[in-house]
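Support case: user asked for a sample of complex input and structure output to validate their parser. Sending the pair below.
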Amino acid sequence: MEALTYLFSSWIQPDLLFLTALGAFAGIYIGAIPGLSVTMAVSILISFTFSWEVNPALALMNGIFMGGVYGGSRTAILLNIPGAPAAIATSLDGYPMAKKGEAGQAIGLSTVMSFIGGLVGIVVLALAAPAISEFAIKFQPRDYMLIAVMGILLVGALSGESLAKGVFAGAFGILLGTVGLDPMTAEQRFTFGSVSLMNGISSIALMIGMFGVSEALLQLHHLNAQAVKQKIDRIVPLWGDIKRHLSLTLQSSGIGVIIGALPGTGGDIAALMAYDHAKRITKNPDVPFGEGAKEGLIAPESANNAAVGGAYIPMLTLGIPGDAVTAVIIGALFIHGLNPGPLLLLEKPDMFWFTVGNLVLADIFMLIFGLTGIRIFTKIIECPKAVLFPLILLLSVVGAYSINNSVADVWWMLGFGVFGYFMKLYGYQVAPVILGIILSRLMDDNWRRAIISERESLPDFVLGILTSPLSATLLGIIVFVLFTQTRWWKRRFGAAPTSLDAVKSN
Amino acid sequence: MQEQPTARRPGELVFTLILLVGSLFLLWQAYGISGFAGLSSAGAFPMAMSAIMAVSLVVILATVLRRPAPAAVLERLRKDILPATVVVFCGLILVYSLALDWLGFIPSSFLFLLASITFLQGGRFKRALGLSLLSIICVYVVFRLVFQVVLPEGLIPERAIIAWIQSFFAAGN
């Protein structure tokens, strides 16, 4: 009964209601404008919500997350430019639909299916998280370490050019997280005698630099890309269409939640896998895939929003973020003194149920704003880039400054921004770095606890992993991920992943 | 996963080498924390990570070296890697972050916006002036007044002005 009051607290408090709506609204546009990403928006916003209570901050971020994942589909359909990576698959059939004059239909259908997908994700979150956190209490320190390794490895392996680059980025992030005084022995690590380094490198400055500044700098390359306009007809989709595709929507949502819940994989991969799934199970589509099949639009859109709820599962139950956005949100929770993990649900059930209820609210607002305001949308999307990028950089600088009211964090942010710019240019991903710095402390602590409990014996540690079913499974997954990156595997099973590659490189 | 490009990108070799040297330096630094004192020592974990970094960079370096060198390096470096816009922008941000503490948020941000918008749209000063003014007002209202973010004050005593306006209205009541 008490949980119920927490569940709806954001529905009845006007300020929280407003912030969620604002977040969802802003998220749709942030997601839609190519060059702006949800990760970027959430990272910059964190530093502005420092002084807030945790609930309003969460309400705003939940709204942005939900709206942003959906918003990318708009530009994918209208301009063939996915506003966010999660919308890459959407453009494959969405844009052909728009070209045939069915842009409104496509938008309406993707909005409603995103809503349903989002809802499925949240329901699974509400049902699965309590069970998982109960189970997670039995996790050994080594299991936490293995899950974290798995998450970083998955991000590194599935995005970017090569596994080696992903591994480098992940290890670099983890190393950055160790800078400062060692939490166990208070020894100095990588401080180079500087007092300001003893507190470590601010992960917020890193996030703003890598997601905000570097992305804005990269976008300066294509400043003059012109947008093509589309005519938009009725948006509200036909009831028959929804009913006919409900089964596919639910299946895709299932894929979305599972992929979202895997640490390290998020909406972009979920959408691509759901698209693949739709292609396989739809025997006789009315329109062939790639030429405007509704199935090809519905599957990725419901999956990527379902992945939102999924991504919260490992974050709230294990303290391990499900994707880049939840990595940033977990950073925000740390700042607010919360320590997500298996005990969160026991100690702070209010936080959990608040999040669940608030996500539903964000999903509803996404539906409302998605089906209305198409006129303003086409106006905002034309916002001149010459104003947009200076504004992003301004907010990045101000955001970094307000972390500690010091210019030092601005320097760090700029440094990481420029470094991230080069990383992206040379085919390295920045998401593993962020995941690394967030998970560094957890991995370091658990590694040491695990090895101390085995009396510093590496053979015993390995034996411990191999004899515990859970640890052995986790290790198996890690080995499998590594194995799929070998040349032999790629030659043997090259066909399946390359279909995803083809989609991604579009 | 993206496709590997066939030729090296300009500057890629140098970037990889810098990263490798940096990783080896960090490995040496990590060794300096506690040496090989034990698997649970403060330095063991950082050492493992910097070693992983170094090893993965050796693998990357091997692939980079296998690909043919890019043609017209300097020209492509200027066009693809460091176009003038990016360099100028980095400079603008640098100056802005220096001025932030000294001039304060409002004047420095205004000048930053004005300079960068004028630069990006290639002139049209009046339009840039209007857009910067509008943007700075929006940012100030949203972040300083609504979100209550503390921003560097600098030359303009805004807190005093806000307090004066508040007291003015309070006196009026």
